[in-house]
Amino acid sequence: MIHSGQIVDLLTRRIYPGEIRVENGRIASLREVPSAPETYLLPGFVDAHIHIESSMLVPAAFARLAVVHGTVATVSDPHEIANVMGIEGVRYMQKSGRQVPFKFFFGAPSCVPATGFEQAGAHLGPEEIDRLLQDPEILYLAEMMNYPGVIHGDPEVMAKLALARQYGKPIDGHAPGLRGEALQTYIEAGISTDHESFTYEEGKEKLEKGMKLLIREGSAARNFEALIDLLPAYPDRVMFCSDDKHPDDLLLGHINGLARRAIARGIDPMIVLKAACVHPVTHYGLPVGQLRPGDPADFIRLRDLADLEVLETWIEGRCVARAGEPLIEVPPARIINQFAASPKQAADFALPATGRQVRAIVARDGELVTGSEVLSARIEHGLALADPARDLLKIAVVNRYADVAPAVAFIRQVGLKAGAIASSVAHDSHNIVAVGCDDASLCRAVNLVIGARGGIAVTGPEGEDVLPLPVGGIMSDQAGEVVAAGYQRLDRMAKALGSPLGAPFMTLSFMALLVIPSLKLSDQGLFDGDNFQFADLFSD
Predict the structure, then answer these.
(1) Would you tell me how many other CB atoms lie within 10 Å of the CB of residue 145?
(2) How is residue 211 annotated by DSSP?
(3) Same structural domain for residues 247 and 363?
(4) How far is it, in rounded angstroms, from Cα 384 to Cα 382?
(5) Is 405 found in the same domain as 258?
(6) Is the pLDDT of residue 219 over 90?
(7) Which of 109, 173, 300, 533 is the most exposed, having the fewest neighbouring CB atoms within 10 Å of its CB?
């Protein structure tokens, strides 16, 4: 098969009219010709760090949406399903990915559970990490979220890092806000990337100290604007990633959207496209084609190098998307799960007041980091209540792996005026997290999730709805378009209840992520992420 167009050679920074000859899924030859169609052929886009599970889709269904945007591969951390199902969950992701013509590259999740201050569904210690890293399809040690463990030399953490070095596999980082000597210690442990920087100065320091910077733009954490001006100064050390992307956002775009925005700012398209297409391949040693003879025939056809409209996506010589339509058939998804929680009562969410003030989580739109604020409590009959008039709502985390009492605290800037929202997509242990204006609504939203054995739910004066996520309680067994429509419906309902957040459910899903500062809630209680210890909810 011959493909003609303007060939974009990102490795030599050259564009020329040419022909690509493909045989048996590989590039047999490239040659320059006098003239060719005015469309552009170049390597496909690669997401340098993503949790597929956050799309609420199994890998095969994710691929069907992603190829439309020119994505041919992802560097995928199966951390979320591993927290629910352990190694069985990692194998599930690998098998689902193999069902479609798309290139998923999975790592060994390094932090399952993310901390010892919460209950997850599994524990991956050094022995399990060793088993995973022996698999030639497991290409790297996924993000080392326990950066305090690295800095202080925790034996289990150091053993996992040593295994990755032993097998010669890259180690991904996760170090939000880490600077100075602590950052240097973290890097010296062999950690080579970071996707958690949220200021220009932080990203610059990490680059200067030798790390590779992943500019993240997901559904909740959006760091593109803060970091993109680092790309021209460090053109060979930057990649793009989405980290967590909900299905409705995936319908709209993927890595192509970040590249388009970078080019629109005036950054050299060759620099931008190398970050989007080449650097993940070279850093991780991915078997993804780069438009060279002998490479897999993985490439895309664009209308131009400004809007980056994707006309065709090819993977190993097979057209997987054309004119905005996927050409991938997705087989039915197999269901695996672990869900032990039974329905709750409203009284389970009552909080006896043991002080006159409460320490509240402060959510931040577009960020994973949270703030902390001390406010006077609303107390009636000895109980501390939510106070929607002051935007002081209750937040609860319900252990899904055992029938125990919920952990309850307070949160601001979610903004609900009535009702409640709940989700079993709750990084990283994926217990049920919920925010509500009163105990009855909070309980009802949680019970909708429990009844579905995983999902996202809304309840309010105008009604209730739930999007079931039966695969591990975090993914659907339905097609991407169906899941996206369901998610959009619940998103609208949450916003109709008063939430000003751009992505209420995505923000909610990170309120139990203890490794991101500064104040979060686990199934065991309020947690201070700055000092890495539990915190008191009430004070005098």
Answers:
(1) 29
(2) P
(3) no
(4) 7
(5) no
(6) no
(7) 533
Q: Could you count the other beta carbons within 10 Å of the beta carbon of residue 30? A: 18
Give the pLDDT of residue 290.
Answer: 97
Instruction: Take residue 191 and report the two structure tokens written for it.
Output: 């950690």
**527 and 472 within one domain:** yes
226 is a domain residue? yes
CB distance 435 to 459 below 8 Å:
no
| Residue 331, in any domain of the structure | no
- Dist. CA 72–CA 206, nearest whole Å: 28
Whose tokens are 């993985």? That residue is 298
- Residue 333: inside a domain: no
Q: Is residue 339 part of a domain?
A: no
Q: How many domains, in total, are found in the chain?
A: 2
pLDDT in tens, 354-363: 999 999 999 9
**Buried b / exposed e along 184-215 (16+ C-beta atoms within 10 A):** ebbbebbbebbbbbbeeebbbbbbeeebbbbb
- pLDDT attached to residue 416: 98
Look at the alpha carbons of 97, 508, 176, 274 in this order and tell me if their dihedral is positive or negative. positive
Digit-coded pLDDT (tens) for 158-217: 999 999 999 999 999 999 999 999 999 999 999 999 999 999 999 999 999 999 999 999
Based on the fold, state whether residues 350 and 467 are members of the same structural domain: yes
Domain that holds residue 274: 2-326
Mean pLDDT of 528-537: 93
Pair (285, 395) in one structural domain: no
